[in-house]
Amino acid sequence: MSHKILIVDDEPNIVISLEFLMKKEGFQIAVAGDGEEALAKVASFAPDLLLLDVMMPKKSGFEVCEALRADPANSALKIVMLTAKGRETEVAKGLAIGADAYVTKPFSTKDLVVRVKELLGAA
Amino acid sequence: MKRGSPMRQRLAAVGLAGWPLLTFPLLGLPEGGIGGIPAIYLYLFGVWGGLIGLAAWIGEQKG
Amino acid sequence: MLSGWFVALVATAYVGLLFAVARYGDARADAGRSIISGNVYALSLAVYCTSWTFYGSVGRATSGGLSFLTIYIGPTLMLLFAGVLIKMLRISKTYRITSIADFIASRYGKSQLLAGLVTVIAVIGIVPYIALQLKAVSASLAVLFGQVEAGVLPWWLDSTLLVAAALALFTVLFGTRHLDATERHEGMVAAIAFESVVKLVAFLAVGLFVTYGIFGGLADVFQRAAAAPELSRLLHLDATQAGSWASLILLSGLAIILLPRQFQIIVVENVDESHLRRAVWLFPLYLLLINVFVLPIALGGLLHFGAQSGYAADTFVLTLPMAHGAEALAVLVFIGGLSAATGMVIVETIALSTMVCNDLVMPWLLRSTWINAQKRSDLSGLLIGIRRVAIVIILLLGYIYFRAAGEAYALVGIGLISFAAVAQFAPVLFGGMYWKQGTRAGAVAGLVAGFIVWMYTLLLPSFAKSGWIGNGFVEHGLFGLEWLKAQSLFGLRGMDAISHCLWWSLLANLGAYVVVSLNTRPDALEAGQAERFVDIFRRAHRDTDSLLWRGQASLGELVGLLERFLGPARADQQLSAYAAQRGVGSWHKLKVDADLVHFAEAELAGAIGSASARVMVASVAQEEDLGLDEVLDILDEATQVRAYSKELEAKQQALEVATAELREANERLRELDRMKDDFISTVTHELRTPLTSIRALSEMLHEDPRAALADRKRFLGIIVSEAERLTRLINQILDMAKLESGRAEWTTAEVDLGEVAREAMDSLGQLYRDKHVALSGEIPDSGPVVLADRDRLVQVMINLLSNAVKFVAAETGVVKVTVETDGGMVRVAVADNGPGLTAEECSVIFEKFRQGGNTMTDKPQGTGLGLPISRQIVEYFGGALWVESQPGAGANFIFTVPLPAADE
What we know:
The structure holds 3 protein chains of 3 kinds.
Chain A: E1 4-8, H1 12-24, E2 28-32, H2 35-45, E3 49-53, H3 61-70, E4 78-83, H4 88-96, E5 101-104, H5 109-120
Chain B: H1 6-21, E1 33-34, E2 37-38, H2 39-59
Antiparallel strand pairs in B: 1-2
Helix pairs in contact in B: 1-2
Chain C: H1 4-30, H2 38-45, H3 51-54, H4 56-64, H5 70-79, H6 82-94, H7 100-107, H8 112-144, H9 159-175, H10 186-214, H11 218-227, H12 229-232, H13 242-258, H14 260-268, H15 275-292, H16 294-305, H17 316-323, H18 327-367, H19 369-373, H20 380-405, H21 409-412, H22 414-423, H23 426-434, H24 440-465, H25 472-475, H26 497-518, H27 524-534, E1 551-552, H28 555-566, H29 568-581, H30 594-608, H31 610-620, E2 622-623, H32 628-703, H33 709-741, E3 749-752, H34 753-771, E4 774-778, E5 785-788, H35 790-807, E6 814-822, E7 825-832, H36 839-844, H37 866-876, E8 880-885, E9 891-898
Parallel strand pairs in C: 4-6
Antiparallel strand pairs in C: 1-2, 3-5, 6-7, 7-9, 8-9
């Protein structure tokens, strides 16, 4: 019963590191490179949790989050926003539109894993 | 406070121009006649009519 | 021969028609739907054309050729100075001026003396002119009836007397409907305008008849006249007339405003200032039309009757049609002449009767014991009665003068003599409108001096010519003194009598007015009035009025005064209107203040003239006498307050401007601040992104020493490249910061741009070969040479070339470098066959951290600072960097660097 995680980021190297990190923890992983792809993968892959970058081409992380939260079918979906922009307004904005956690880059891999597991109730 | 309106000033300018046009020495200029009518007769009524035309054009402008 | 009864019938019917027109005009005015339009106003001005024009112009033309035209050119030019007329209108409306005498008197401190003086001059100057009109009617009748009956009838059956009586009746009925003389007589004006049309039609008809009926057109008349030796001189202007030509234009230009009837029509009867805009050309056009055929008729008459035949040229307009059996036309002409005469007489008597009543009779009446005994009775009826009697007396005087003068010169020449009389009003009137220093004493002196000179040089000589008095003073000078000869004072010769009089009288008039004015001090009232008249446009009227009056009055007495002179009904009506305007329910509750006193005085002025009104108000109010100094102080203060408020306004405006500028600057600062914030946030983002990979991967390697070797290698590779990216980024950010703050170090030397291009191409050659992208150059072997920093330019070239190779497709990519000189610039272009840029992207890519390319797949590994830095560099050397591109058509990056100036 391994949980499924969708990694959404436009930086290939960050995707590589996240993918490796999460796979090591035993999660099933899928990857999306921009916001639109992310929405499509949410439908097809049905992840339990989203690692969502904010600054992306086509659709920003905020927009993706809003779109997902607008659909009640996704209410169980956990969303962790990742951003390199650490301004407080952005943190507040992310939480306000329904993100479950907000992690600034560069993040501690240990902490991230802990947060993800907490959210998935799979400590 | 009223400023001199452009219309009044234009009319006055026509009036000022009319004075030298309709007095001597310019009146001494027209000589002879055109088509049997004395040139001075044509000149006087022509200039006079012209001034009136100008005044009409200015006076009837909107605004 | 025409039957007397027929003519009488036609004339009566015509006068009946006039009554109907006037009734209609009054009815419409009473109903609040005035028929006075700009056209009607302009036509009513043509009351200027009296029978002296209608009959007399032809007469003048037979002796003076075209010189009669001056009488009509003058008004044309004068009317063009509409600003003067508008000022006059504004003053008159504001202060309820009833006549030209009232205007002058009001300006100089509401002086009864001045009002009376103007009235006397006007009456003496104008009554003979009225007589002339009666004579014209009488003469035209005589011609119509073949000169049989004239002089045969006893006086009580004299047709002229009957005409005079009819005119008196008409004038009484339509000229004195209301007591308030400032109230317009719209019916009368309508009738006058109607008469103007009639006389024009009649004159044009006879003109066409003579020119085209009797003769073969204009050219024919002129040619036949030119052939006759005694007539040909009429076709030329004589340069010796230059002086009188100019003075007649001046004289008639003054008369168009100063003749009492003209003042009445132009100023008092004016409904709307904007009507002047029509009048300013329509009335001159009327004058032009009525004069076109004057000379042809004059010449035609002389040709037809023979120059020496003794036929009166004044009646050619009648005798020519009659000699050719055109009796219907003759009747039309008679009606036209009747129109000209009656129109003049009606308006002139209304104007004169107002003046006589208000300015001669009232002052005397107000002082008489009889009127004071009747303190409380209603005098409005009496006032109207006085005006009516005045009308009758003036007409009667005219008639008597006509009977007495007969054919005497004193009548024939009176037209211009009247003009010269009223011209004496010019200095005090115009001076009063524009010159505050003009005083009452100056005005009286000027008028008296001008009037005496006029009498001596013009009126009395005309009496002498008529044989009424000895002509010794004309022939030999008064007391035998040569230099006092009436028509060549001080030996001034070479002018006609009118010009001579105009010259001397205006000189004396103006001189006395100015000299005396400058040497007298006005009293308080005069100073106030001068201020009000001259500054009429500048002053929201009445603002200082209340300052200039201090005193006490009772409402009862003021109302009593109004009731006495206006009648109780009208007084109640006007007071109610005033109370409503002040927002007071009933006039009984009005507070007695300066405004109310001024209102009462203005109302009275409309009825009895400003001078008498002043006296009456002063009689019921205990007024504090303000000294001249005090008045001047108040006026000065008012002027100063105006100046202050203007200054304040200007300052406020400046302040508003400054505030707007500050706001704008603040806005710019905020924008800069926001941009800085954005920049920092972006930089943070850009720096954190490589750090994220580096940290995540390092931590994983650190915690998992047993990771597969392949993964370790891969991760370390990524860490190294991200670290490089970070370094590059930091370098470029520092570079950018230096460039922007102007702290960059530059070494300027002669740089061969071709060499720079080749070097950059060499250093990136491997990159291109790896991707199999073709790189070619079109570069001169040596040069062009510019003054710049070589390393910086290489940096720019490398940036452009590496961008290009990033975006073109592998294998098929082509990049071409061109270096050429274009004008004073070296132009370097790097063209690729990549995907191209949209118009929006073309500008966006030069912003910091904005990179071309959108999708993850073609995400460039750039910093987003290369192009902004390149642009900074190029611009530093006075060049420019831009891109020309279309989506799908490749991109062409171009930069220019100026060539050094030739002499360096």
